[in-house]
TrEMBL record:
Gene3D superfamilies: Electron Transport, Fmn-binding Protein, Chain A. It comes from the Bacteria. InterPro entries: Pyridox_Oxase_FMN-dep, Pyridox_Oxase_N, Split_barrel_FMN-bd. Residues 35-154 form the Pyridoxamine 5'-phosphate oxidase N-terminal domain. It comes from Achromobacter agilis. This is Pyridoxamine 5'-phosphate oxidase N-terminal domain-containing protein.
Amino acid sequence: MHIDPAHLISDADALQTLYGSPGEASLKKEVDHVHPHYRSFIEAAPFAILATGGPDGLDASPRGDPAGFVVVEDEKTLLLPDRRGNNRIDSLRNILADPRVAMLFLVPGVSETLRVNGTARISVDPALLARFEMDGKQPRSVLVIDVQTVYFQCSRALLRSKLWDPQTQVPRSALPSVGRILSDLTAGTFDGAAYDRDLPARVAGSLY
């Protein structure tokens, strides 16, 4: 696709002219710590997205557990257990190279979201791992996130998307299965049918 360079925004002044000044509320909502009101959002969220960056690229990773799985240790510190996954550890590799992280917390049925920016360290302290044991299993590691900025995001994006509206839910069968995707990406050399057949039991048995 050809994009006319004459219509590209390439400097901060042009961008500011295009969008204008931010509203007063959008500036006053940002603080450098987890305010009690913001803590309530984090403790009610069963799902969050963790964004990281490193020399090999960017990563946005879904994280989920029962509500409150991200612990507010104090107003400047969050604790995030790293549960069992696919062992790609893209986020963790990025953090080793660049500790900056961003998180987006979602609460089912609530259209405002919460954003946290800061830096992260990877801890394997046995006492810390034990705090996050679930179903008799501990996480491999825990991210200790040093909070720098926290603020809520207004409801427009979720209202436009109708994310929580049951009428907009898409049947899983309307999209290709993960086995079908793997099979097609590998020109049939990967047994996608077997993968799909075994997946439900494998996931159910390996949540923790």
